[in-house]
Amino acid sequence: MSLLEDKEIKTEDKDDDFKEMLDKSFQGQIYFTPGQKTSAVVVSISGSQVFIDLGGKREGFINVSELIDESGVITVKPQDTIEAYFDGTQDGMMRFTTLINGNSSQAIRYIEERAQRGETVEGVVNRAIKGGYEVSVKGIRCFCPQSQMDLRPASDRSVYEGKTFDFKILEHKDKGRGVIVSRRIILEEQKKKILESLKETIKEGDEIEVTVRSIRKFGVFVDIGGIAGLIPASEIGWGRSEKLESLFSEGQRLQVRVLSADFDSERITLSLKALQSDPWDSVEERYPVGSKVDGKVVKLMPFGVFVLIEEGVEGLIHISNIGEGKRIKHPDEVLQQGQRVEAYVLSVDRANRKMSLSLNSQQQKEIAYPSIGEVLEVAVLKTMPFGILVKINPDLTGLIPLSDTGLARGEDVKAFFTEGRLINTVVKEVDVDKGRVRLSRKDYANKKENEEYKKYMQEQNSMENKKMGLLGELLEAQLNKKESASIG
Question: Fewer Cβ atoms within 10 Å of its own Cβ: the N or the C terminal residue of the chain?
Fold first, then answer.
C-alpha cells in the first residue's frame, strides 16, 4: 500500500469518527419553544438559581426567587420533580419559569387541587379593600368578600389585617387571577357542630362558666364554647345597673345561670342575678318599721328621692317627709344626688318591693289622715297649674284639682283661692303610702246644697204637720159645739 493510499484511509476514519460524534450530539440535543411546559427533576440549588435536569445531559435553571414561600423558605429540594415553562436563554443556558400570569404554578396547582377536594387553604389577610379583603394564599392574591370574612362583620375592618386564617375556595379561574375564598363557611360549619354539642350539654337552669366577649349598654355578650350568649342589664344584679364597662372586662370569666336556651334561633339568655339571693326576701326582718338606716341618694324626682340602702334595696323619702315641716317645691332644695343620708323606716311592702322612709325621726309620729267623705276646713297654700295646694293639718297637705274647685269656666282661680284663705272641702281620696289627700270644694258645695234641701223639706213637713194639727183642733171644737147645742 502506498503512502498516499494509507493517508486517504486515515482521513476517511477521522471523518467517520466526527460524523458519529456529531450524530450523537444531535441525538442528545433538546429543543424548546417559548412557553413550552416540561416536567423536570431538581438537580441542585446554588446561589440564586435552581438547576433542573432536561435529559440528554442538558440542564436548565429557574430563579430561586420563584420557589421561596412567604416565610422566605425554599419550597423545593434536589430530586423533587417540578413543572416549569421555557422562558428563553441566558448566558448560554436555558432559563425556565414556574410562574403563570405572575403566579407560581405550584401555588396554582395547590389551589386547584384543594378546591377539587373541598379542602381548606391557609391564607394571610393583607388588607381591607373595597367590598372585601385581599388574602394571600401561597403568594397568590385572592379575594374574600366582606360578608364571607366572619359570621358578624367587625365594625373595624382592620382587625383582620395581618392575621392568618383557614379559608374555603369558592371559585378559581384564569390560572390564579380569579380566586375567591370564604372564611364564613368554615365558621358556620364549626358553629353548627358546637350548637349540636351544646344541645346535649346545656339546659335551662344550669349553672355554667362563660367568658366576657363584649360589653353593651343593654347587656354583656359572653362566649359559651364558641357560641354567643347574652346577660341582659336587668339580669346583672338586684340593684340599679351601673355603667357595665366599670363592672366587666373582655376575657373575664363568670359563673352564670341559663334562663333560656333557644338553639334554633341561637338565643341563649343568662343571668348573674339568679345566683344571688334576693335582698327583699328578708327585708322586713333587717329593716323593721321605725329602724334607722343609712343610704345614698341615687335619684331625685319632683315627688321625692330614692335612697339606696343596700344593693337591690331602695327606699323612697316622699317630699312631704323632707322639708322638716317646711314646704319645699323640689327635693333638690334639701338633698343632692350621691349624698349620704340617715333615714327612718315608715313602712315596708315586700310583695311590691317598696319601702317608705322619713328623713328625720320627728316625722315618724302618726299622721292623722282624714276619712273619705269627711268635711274639712283647710287653708290655701298655693295655686298650681294643676290645682290648689292646701294645709289640712301641721303634718299633712292636700290637693284640690282644678276640676274640683267648683268655679265656673273663666272664673279667676287665683283671685278666689288667695293664700291663707280658709275654705270648706270634702275628702275624695286618701293614699297613706304616698301621703296624698285629694279634696273637692265642688263636692262640698253639692253636699251643702243637699243638706240644706233636706233641712228645707224637713221644715216644710213640720209646718204641714202643724197646720194639719190646727185644722183638726178646729174641726173637733166645731163638732163639740154642735153636740152641746143638740143636747140643750
Answer: C
